[in-house]
Amino acid sequence: MDEQELRDRTKAFALRVMKLAEAMPKTQASKIVTNQLLRCATSVGANYRAACRGRSKADFVSKIGIVEEEADESAYWLELIMENNLLNQKKVQPLHREAEELRKIFTSSRLTASRSRNQKSSTKNQK
Questions:
Q1: DSSP alpha helices (H): ranges in the chain?
Q2: Which residues of 97-123 are buried (b: 16+ CB within 10 A; e: fewer)?
């Protein structure tokens, strides 16, 4: 998956979460959960774009770590929605699965970038 495909995918995730948020009940607890979910789900794409503009490999690794955390947090809030039966699980489950897939993608990306950065550092130190 290339950079543009991930940009599109993270934006689509945010848009789907925004739609889900509109269907949430208007109780005090669900408003808090909805607000937290909206913040982290929309942050996934925004922070991924920032990571792509990173000034260095270290900057990219740091920012992609934030993306990973935001995707994981999105999964958490979606789990609360399902476990508290705030919405039909069939509506929420695909978004939860997408949050988990995005988290795995960004975890892998961070680890790969971190390893390549560390290999370059150790190569320089050996010279």
A1: 3-23, 28-52, 57-83, 89-126
A2: ebbbebbebbbebbeebbeeeeeeeee
* Angstrom distance (rounded) from CA 99 to CA 76: 9
CA 20/CA 113 separation, integer angstroms: 33
pTM of the model: 0.90
| Distance in angstroms (rounded) separating the CA atoms of residues 75 and 54 | 25
Max Cα separation, the chain?
A: 63
End-to-end CA distance of the chain: 35
Confidence of residue 69 (pLDDT cuts 50, 70, 90): very high
Tens-digit pLDDT profile for residues 1-43 = 899 999 999 999 999 999 999 999 999 999 999 999 999 999 9
